[in-house]
Amino acid sequence: MTTTSPASEIAFDVLVSDHPRPAADRAEILAAPKFGSVFTDHMVTLRWSADRGWHDGRLEPYGPFTLDPGTSVFHYAQEIFEGLKAYRQHGGAIVAFRPQANAARFGSSARRMAMPQLPGDAFVRAIELLVSQDRAWVPDGEGHSLYLRPFMIATQTGLGINQPSQQYLFALIASPAAAYFSGGARPVSVWISPEYTRAAPGGTGEAKCGGNYGGAFAGQQQAIANGCDQVVWLDAVERRWIEEMGGMNLFFVSGSGSSASIMTPALTGTMLPGITRDSLLTLAPGLGIKAEEGRISVDEWRAGCASGEISEVFACGTAAVITPVGKVKSPAGEWLVGDGSPGPVTLRLREELLGLQYGDRPDPHGWIHKIC
Ligand SMILES: *Cc1c(COP(=O)(O)O)cnc(C)c1O
Predict the structure, then answer these.
(1) DSSP E strands, 6-124
(2) 3-class DSSP state for residue 215?
(3) Is any atom of ligand 1 closer than 6 Å to the C-beta of 276?
(4) Is 173 in the pocket of ligand 1 (CB under 6 A)?
(5) Which among 232, 223, 212, 219 is positioned nearest to 313, based on CA atoms?
(6) 345 C-alpha vs ligand 1 centroid, how far in Å?
(7) Strand runs (DSSP E) across the chain, as ranges?
(8) Which ligand 1 atom is the nearest neighbour of the CA of 212?
(9) Residue 275 alpha carbon, nearest atom of ligand 1
(10) How buried is 211 (Cβ within 10 angstroms: 0-12 exposed, 13-18 middle, 19+ buried)?
(11) Cα–Cα distance between 319 and 177 in angstroms, integer?
(12) Considering the domain 7-177 in this protein, what is its CATH number?
């Protein structure tokens, strides 16, 4: 069977697995999914070459790739990815959240990494195909979802670096997920890295590329060695301004009740433009919470917590939704945010966003994309 997506004319052949995981095994996995550890029965693949463009689109059984050891991605890390989720809503529908926004960001990441543009409708069509085929894998537990991981790698064989790879593989895989950090809204402690930075002006910080993560693990290891859960990155120029926490954007809350406001560092080109971040900036005003982009230094963070001006801090991203930050540690000292427990603005925004994603709240912005 071949399905053609009318706008981009990219076709996907459908090859259904003849050895899907037995239903009883799947049920056991879905009862307690572990983030990104087990994958569903199928995957989508699509190839690109300079002479043929996009071709060989396929929904096929999940399985390993065979690649020549001289394949470009192994040496020069031309790789980009996305992360989004499919939700089993309480009304029964299976939906994705803002997949076109992920498609657009995949396009900007590809541009920065000198990779080909995948038309947005083909990106979304790949998601629809995989999620519909593997819909039995979308868990129905509280806060559970099917995590979707689209990615693209450079597949040309050869070590030359005069031009980017002339061949690429796009793939989409999926993995059932529970809450990313165990314990739901348990506050995390953060280590402000004095030594490493994540991204510099002109670099790849705003592209969702694997290399950004490869360079970040050493900072994350130091956070753990310092007794913290997560690393917080400072800007690379002044080593003063707060950028992100691990793979999540940060928000700072001031005031409370009807005077509450939230602020997130403005996108300077070194931060990843999170879709959760954008969604919260859009949602908050409708809930009576003022929202703005700005900037905050380490000293201001510390002083704001001491004076009580900063009442809450949280991180946000697709995988972990909204995670409160309870404690901050840097070589200059350590302090609590509020009393270290999750604050009301953090919990309210988390509930509103999850409510929208699981179909318990209206969707005024048209963010919910029904799949099946
Ligand atoms: C993916 C990512 C985020 C969060 O983006 P969402 O679209 O909200 O999931 C934040 N920071 C980094 C570094 C990321 O890679």
Answers:
(1) 11-14, 42-49, 53-61, 79-81, 84-88, 94-97
(2) coil
(3) yes
(4) no
(5) 232
(6) 21
(7) 2-4, 11-14, 42-49, 53-61, 79-81, 84-88, 94-97, 145-154, 167-177, 188-192, 230-234, 242-245, 248-254, 261-265, 290-294, 310-317, 321-330, 333-336, 368-370
(8) 13
(9) 7
(10) middle
(11) 9
(12) 3.30.470.10
**Region of 269 on the Ramachandran plot (φ > 0 left; ψ -120 to 50 alpha; else beta):** left
Structure tokens at 121: 């409708």
* Separation CA 278–CA 249 (nearest Å): 10
Three-state DSSP state, 289: coil
Element (H, E) at 101: helix 99-112
Confidence (pLDDT) at 4: 47
- Domain extents in the chain: 7-177, 188-357
Counting Cβ atoms within 10 Å, is residue 121 exposed (0-12), middle (13-18) or buried (19+)? middle
Distances in whole angstroms, Cα of residue 227 to Cα of each of 158, 189, 223, 328, 329: 43, 8, 7, 11, 9
pTM: 0.96
Amino acid (one-letter) located at 146 = L
d(CA 291, CA 237): 26
- How many A from CA of 174 to the centre of ligand 1? 17
Q: Quick check: 251 and 348 in contact, CB under 8 A?
A: no
Q: How far is CA 191 from CA 6, 58, 173, 187, 327, in A?
A: 49, 43, 32, 14, 9
Partnered with residue 297 across adjacent β-strands are 241
Contact between residue 227 and residue 219 where contact means Cβ atoms under 8 Å apart: no
CA dist 168 and 177 (Å) reads 28
What's the CATH code, domain 188-357? 3.20.10.10
- pLDDT tens profile 238-272: 999 999 999 999 999 999 999 999 999 999 999 99
Residue of 82, 33, 111 lying closest to 274 (CA atoms): 82
Task: Quote the tokens at residue 79.
Answer: 């790789």
pLDDT band (50, 70, 90) for residue 180: low
